[in-house]
Design brief:
Elements: E1 4-5, E2 8-9, H1 13-39, H2 41-48, H3 53-89, H4 95-106, E3 110-113, H5 116-119, E4 132-135, H6 137-185, H7 194-215, E5 221-223, E6 233-235, H8 238-295, E7 296-297, H9 309-323, H10 327-378, H11 385-398, E8 403-404, H12 405-423
Parallel strand pairs: 7-8
Antiparallel strand pairs: 1-2, 3-4, 5-6
Helix pairs in contact: 1-3, 1-4, 2-6, 3-4, 3-6, 6-7, 6-8, 7-8, 8-9, 8-10, 9-10, 10-11, 10-12, 11-12
């Protein structure tokens, strides 16, 4: 080091040479970055785009920043060139040369001037009331790094959105057009079918989305929280994803309508068969109810309703839709009818079961009575007078019409108890007669 000047100790020749080498490498790196930014596809698109919203505001600021960047770089270049010229005067720089070089390399020797138009939106000069500033080379590099990072961040973000969303929107729009044509072929149209209305809404949304993405890409950019790297983030595809899912739902519905067109006749035949089986089952239940009322006494027998005429009317409407190829109307009607027909068949079967329940109880009592008689016969007790008497009493009740099920069940139980007493000893029940031949 030499003597001390306004900027500190005067640099010696070796220090000057090392500083010039470092600044030269730094100058080359900055120039490469600026040229890359100048040639960036996103920047060129931004220059020629009709921007709106937040993108227009940020691009105006970024454009001014890029202009200022070049002004800074030119000033940096000029200062570096001057320093190299001074160093090149002599092989062994004089004390005055070294002092001058120290001032250039370390002092606030860089003056940046510009017009009001160029710096109106520049973040480093706006609001200062000045059109020029002085910097050290280190301060200038720091400012250039800041401007470059903010400008590149904006350019990369806009380019990322433009690279990702418009192409995807166009592909989805093409799929939407194919779906619209398919929907039209099966009668799914706006105002006539919900899926047709959905297609119109999706079309409007995608058209608006593409216009907004093209004119204001930064409105569809989500920065990565905590990231300081330029372009840290991702395109916001929320609206696109929602419409893509909606289109897929519509496509599935159209496929369902196409399926109806292919197998409508088979489904109508099956529907007629199910409803016919339900009608036959209800007719059987009505017939069985009459039989039960005639044969069973003291029993609540539920009423049997007739077949619902509304299903037959809807079935006729479905057949009419098929004849006129109104597949979009036939599809939901068939689905509804198929469920209702199955429900009707189930109701008819439940009605038959409820009506014939007393006959099933009588058949179970008859079977139980005969089973005990056979068991008694195997043990050689078939001729026991008490058992014969109680068997005959129970049988008369079960095979008479009308049959009182409650009385008949008690008669069968009396026969069972008597048979059990004969077949083996048992502990008398509380309140039961001690004599096994006691009559009740």
């Amino acid at each position: 080091m030499g003597v001390t000047g306004p900027t500190g100790p005067v640099l010696d020749r070796d220090e000057v040479d090392r500083a010039l080498a470092r600044l030269g490498a730094e100058h080359e790196a900055i120039e490469t970055s600026l040229l890359a930014l100048q040639d960036h596809a996103g920047r060129r698109l931004l220059e020629g785009a009709d921007l709106t919203g937040v993108t227009r505001e940020r691009w105006a600021s970024a454009e001014a920043s890029i202009t200022l960047l070049w002004a800074y770089f030119d000033a940096y270049t000029a200062t570096l060139r001057t320093a190299r010229e001074i160093r090149a005067r002599r092989r062994w720089s004089s004390r005055d040369d070294l002092a001058e070089l120290t001032e250039l390399l370390r002092g606030a020797s860089v003056i940046v001037a510009g017009s009001a138009a160029a710096t109106a939106n520049a973040p480093t000069l706006a609001g200062t009331g000045r059109l020029s500033q002085q910097f050290t080379l280190a301060e200038l590099v720091e400012r250039m790094n800041e401007l470059y990072a903010s400008s590149l961040d904006m350019v990369v973000a806009a380019d990322a959105v433009w690279s990702a969303l418009p192409a995807r929107i166009d592909l989805l729009a093409a799929e939407l057009q194919r779906t619209r044509e398919l929907a039209h072929s099966v009668g799914v149209r706006p105002g006539e079918h919900p899926a047709g209305d959905d297609l119109e809404r999706i079309t409007r949304t995608l058209t608006r989305l593409r216009e907004e993405v093209v004119s204001d890409p930064l409105a569809y950019w989500t920065p990565t929280q905590g990231s300081s790297a330029p372009g840290g983030g991702r395109p916001d595809t929320t609206t696109y994803d929602r419409e893509a899912r909606a289109l897929e739902d519509v496509r599935r519905e159209i496929d369902a309508v196409l399926t109806v067109r292919q197998d409508a006749e088979a489904r109508l035949v099956k529907l007629r068969d199910v409803l016919s089986r339900a009608d036959r089952t209800l007719a059987e239940a009505r017939s069985a109810r009459g039989e039960v009322l005639a044969k069973i006494a003291a029993s609540e027998v539920p009423a049997v309703s007739g077949p619902p005429t509304v299903l037959q009317e809807q079935l006729a409407t479905a057949a009419e839709y098929r004849r006129h190829a109104q597949w979009h109307r036939l599809s939901p009607l068939l689905e509804s009818l198929e469920q209702k027909a199955e429900d009707e068949l189930l109701r008819a079967r439940e009605s038959l079961t409820a009506v014939t329940a007393p006959l099933a109880v009588r058949a179970e009592l008859r079977g139980r009575l005969d089973a005990y008689k056979a068991k008694i016969a195997r043990h050689g007790l078939a001729e026991d007078p008490l058992l014969v008497e109680r068997y005959d009493a129970a049988r008369r009740m079960l095979w008479s019409a009308p049959c009182d099920l409650r009385v008949a069940e008690q008669a069968v139980l009396r026969y069972q108890r008597a048979a059990a007493e004969l077949l083996g000893p048992r502990v008398p029940q509380q309140g039961a007669p001690a004599d096994r031949r006691g009559r009740t």
